[in-house]
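Take one protein record:
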Amino acid sequence: MKKILLATGATLLLSCGAASAADWSDTSISWRYGTRFAEPFNPEHIRKHIFALTHASGYKYGSNFFNVDLLQSDKTDPASLTQNEGAQEAYVVYRHLLDIGALRGTEKRYGPVKGVGVTLGFDWNTKNDVGYNSRKRMLVAGPTLMWDVPAGFLNTSLLVLRESNAPSGAFPPIANVNGRYTYDTHAALSVNWAIPVAERLAFEGYGMFIAAKGQDEVGLGTGAETNIDMALMYDVGAHFGQPKNRFRVGLEYQFWNNKFGNTRATTGGRGQRASTPMVRAEYHF
């Protein structure tokens, strides 16, 4: 929990620093809940509460995005062999999009593409669970296309990922892993969007299509991974005199296949795929 709190504090400091130099910014806290999450090698459906801090901001030459998720599992994803408490996880994402046209002082369009940029960033996580205790570190870089949509945004990126982990589970073969293991450098196609579909309704989400990353830390082959998360959000605060998009509620859905590169062959069909409906509420500052 101490590491989770430190991760949250670090993200808050970064968000505040980015906001001070931004042309625009949006910071929110949110909660989402689902009952059909999954974890590799675990045959049970898992209930999770996820609390998040999200910050997005833009400046002359691009934009920043920070998100930290604090995930609380139920007892079907236990924190240890000696307690019934569910596992806890912090997952931090940072992305910086550098707009090449803005940097060069020119705005050149390419048909439906309104801009070209470069995305740089990282993923970082820590989790306390009985089986794996993930300590993921990942660097991200690659070109991004910014598409011309009537409102909101739609971006696609071709990314290079450099990922490592240092698991420490209670059972072999993870129990026999020593130190940090680095996977093969691999590619991913990323899509992110937020598009209004009505005056108070927006369709938002992201998709990651990730290539296999070679062998994992115990010598098993990994598979290509798909992670799609999308939400339909309604501006309920507008009914109570609140500023636009101050308080929103909605439905979210996540499909995750070959989670973290684990396949049906390596897990025996246990927990490598999740299809998870969620409810979501968020408050914007």
The chain has a mean pLDDT of 92. Residues 2-284 form a domain with the Outer membrane phospholipase (ompla); Chain C fold (CATH 2.40.230.20).
